């Protein structure tokens, strides 16, 4: 218990929630009830393995061509392991006129490789909020101990 630094959000200002599907939907589900001026967009990344090499491709996305000036963007992905997906997502968002200071990344579990990659790629005021930082990622890119597949857990599949 102690003093906490907080940032208030004017509910009349534009806020965008960008869940990385499908697992990010669980974290984004109730955001509009707290932030009334919220619009929700979506990103889907496909993870492809060819000859045991991991490749990531953009499956589809629903983002505006340009975010409104001053719009805060909350990117939600429950697991930040290697950082590949979240960095790709932030690149797309930044191409649409959003500064680091306006972006907040929200996750349940983060691992050092993802946090390091975010720090190097987006220096400055990018904020990352994680429920816990697990210590490592295994050779397959899974967080250890982690939670397992967040999408499967969220949707019971």
From TrEMBL:
Keywords, sorted A to Z: Allosteric enzyme, Glycosyltransferase, GTP-binding, Nucleotide-binding, Transferase
Pathway annotation: Pyrimidine metabolism; UMP biosynthesis via salvage pathway; UMP from uracil: step 1/1
Enzyme class: transferase
UniProt entry tagged with the keyword Glycosyltransferase: yes
Cofactor(s) needed for function: Mg(2+)
Domain Phosphoribosyltransferase: from-to ranges: 10-157
This enzyme's EC code(s): 2.4.2.9
InterPro entries to which the protein is assigned, alphabetical: PRTase-like, PRTase_dom, UPRTase/APRTase
Keyword Magnesium: no
Gene3D superfamilies: 3.40.50.2020
A molecular function GO annotation: uracil phosphoribosyltransferase activity
Family membership noted in the UniProt record: Belongs to the UPRTase family.
Protein name, per record: uracil phosphoribosyltransferase
């Amino acid at each position: 218990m102690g003093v906490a630094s907080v940032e208030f959000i004017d509910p009349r200002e534009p806020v965008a929630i960008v869940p990385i599907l499908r697992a990010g939907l669980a974290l984004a589900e109730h955001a509009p009830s707290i932030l009334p001026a919220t619009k929700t967009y979506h990103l889907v990344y496909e993870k492809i393995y060819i000859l045991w090499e991991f490749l990531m491709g953009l499956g589809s996305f629903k983002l505006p061509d340009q975010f409104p000036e001053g719009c805060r963007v909350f990117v939600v992905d429950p697991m930040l392991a290697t950082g590949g997906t979240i960095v790709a997502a932030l690149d797309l968002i930044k191409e649409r006129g959003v500064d680091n200071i306006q972006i907040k990344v929200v996750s349940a579990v983060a691992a050092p490789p993802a946090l390091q990659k975010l720090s190097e790629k987006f220096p400055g005021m990018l904020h990352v909020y994680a429920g816990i930082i697990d210590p490592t990622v295994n050779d397959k890119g899974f967080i250890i101990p982690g939670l397992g597949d967040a999408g499967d857990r969220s949707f019971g599949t």
